[in-house]
Design goal:
153 residues; mainly beta; OB fold (Dihydrolipoamide Acetyltransferase, E2P)
Length: 153
């Protein structure tokens, strides 16, 4: 069995480009930047950025072009594909993520999944304010400790 799966979470480096194929299907392409932080041999902290070309088809392509902009946080999941073509007698290559699924990150771009901007001065943390809009999406967990013997499976 073979596996060709790509999962990329990053920020758009440019606005998405929407085009139509001759058969009328919409195609959206954009580039995502991902970064990583690591320590080199000398123990110094280093940062590195990678850039990923993403292509989306159909209704998702229209939604990407409509809602995504440069800097938007986005998760793309799909397969890797390398295309090749001749340009002025020179063979050109481009590796892309052909996305089956695209999820938009938090508005305003940047940050990690689940991260949000810092609270305004004087408002305290999200737990103490109690009026955070994200709280409605999270389940209410019990305050007391859970006994593993109470779990039915």
């Amino acid at each position: 069995m073979y596996l060709n799966k790509a999962m990329v979470y990053g920020n758009l480096t440019r606005d998405p480009e929407l085009k139509s194929l001759p058969n009328g299907m919409q195609v959206c392409s954009f580039s995502l930047a991902t970064n990583r932080v690591f320590n080199d041999r000398d123990g110094k902290r280093q940062e590195s950025a990678d850039y990923h070309n993403v292509v989306v088809f159909g209704k998702q392509a229209e939604n990407c072009a409509k809602y995504l902009t440069k800097g938007s946080s986005t998760y793309a999941e799909g397969r890797m594909q390398t295309r090749s073509w001749d340009k002025d007698g020179v063979k050109q290559y481009r590796t892309e993520v052909i996305a089956d699924r695209v999820q938009f990150g938090p508005k305003g771009g940047g940050g990690a999944p689940g991260a949000s901007a810092a609270p305004a001065a004087g408002t305290g943390s999200a737990k103490s304010s109690g009026a955070d809009s994200r709280d409605s999406a999270l389940p209410d967990y019990p305050e007391e400790e859970i006994n593993p013997e109470d779990i039915p499976f």
